[in-house]
Amino acid sequence: MQGGSAFDPVIKQLRYLSEILHHPLNAGRQISTISRCARWFVGARLVDGEVAMPFVNDTMLLMKRGMRGLTENVYVGLSEFEDMGFALHLLRKGDLFVDVGANAGAYTVLASGVVGAKSVAFEPLQAAFSQLVRNVSFNGITDRVDLHNAAVGRSSGVARMTVDLDAANYITTHDDFSGELTEVPMVALDDAIGVNEPTLVKIDVEGYETEVIVGAEQTLRRQSLLAVIIETNDCAIRYGADLQSLDEIMLLYGFERSIYDPMTRALRPRAIAGAPGGRNTLYVRNPALVRTRLIEAAPFHVIGRSL
User: Fold this and answer.
1) Would you call 117 helix, strand, or coil by DSSP?
2) Distance between CA atoms of 150 and 157, rounded to whole angstroms?
3) What is the pTM of this model?
4) Fewer CB within 10 Å, N- or C-terminus of the chain?
């Protein structure tokens, strides 16, 4: 007999709840965690529209029910704990952060709202871009953020994208996709960044990461660039790419695979790209300098913890 059990959705939710309760920022705080999650769960169903939820330090995120990419921050404080913590500890006021695949702007708010860095953010889909604009404006960081309603690839042009998959929308290069598509402008990162010198780049484009890297040769060669956070999962096979090839490119540019623990501020080597666990791979250049920055960074405050 094929098909899942009627209990599968319940089991899935229980597993998700267990992950939330065992998250590093929630460990030992099960009661307050359940209370916070319950308040959001109920409140999001009572309010017709967006709710401003506390984020890190004094920043806020505008969100509403169904925005999985944002609402995870309510449940666990930082939806991508290691990488968001790394960004907060690495960046300094006046640095440049590049957010490729910014979605509704959580990373951009961290970089420019919490730290005070400058940001260049790219988000191709109009709905997500509008949310990004609202979060940037709501946090009063418009003067520090350069927003681009565009996809990023190996060259300038036009791309086709899915539109109804929330944070998982992606560029499609095939004609057999049956869902709704939209055309979006595309730019190469080198063209968009120009002579500017970023300190950190984050790339989250649902498998299109290698195409972004190909169009970022000059950006990746800049010695100001200390780290790149790249989503690394099996979505790359959509475009005939693989994690090993992407990893080899990053190593050739002088980066090292790394893992960061925001709780201890420890940076250590990572053996394999995309594993174990996690959605991203952190690539670091000049690790001695990076470690100094991480250790000397001012603490930040999220869901009652100081890191």
Assistant:
1) coil
2) 10
3) 0.92
4) N
Could you report the per-residue pLDDT of 34-55, keeping only the tens digit for each? 999 888 888 888 888 899 999 9
DSSP-assigned letter for residue 262: T
Q: Which residues contact 189 (CB under 8 A, 6 or more apart)?
A: 98, 100, 152, 201, 212, 215, 216, 219
Say which residues have a Cβ less than 8 Å from residue 126's Cβ, sequence separation at least 6: 149, 182
User: In the chain, where are the structural domains located?
Assistant: 1-73, 80-299
Cβ distance 124 to 102 under 8 Å? no
Distance CA 302, CA 83 (A): 15
Percent of the chain with pLDDT over 90: 69
Q: What residues pair up with 201 in beta bridges, in sequence order?
A: 98, 228
Of 210, 209, 294, 224, the closest CA to residue 254 belongs to 224
Residue 194 dihedral angles phi and psi, to the nearest 5°: 65, -130
Would you tell me which CATH number, out of the four given (3.40.190.150, 3.10.129.10, 2.30.38.10, 3.40.50.150), belongs to the domain 80-299?
Answer: 3.40.50.150
Residues 6+ apart with CB under 8 A from 22: none
Q: At what angle do helices 8-21 and 30-46 cross, to 10 degrees?
A: 120
pLDDT at 93: 97
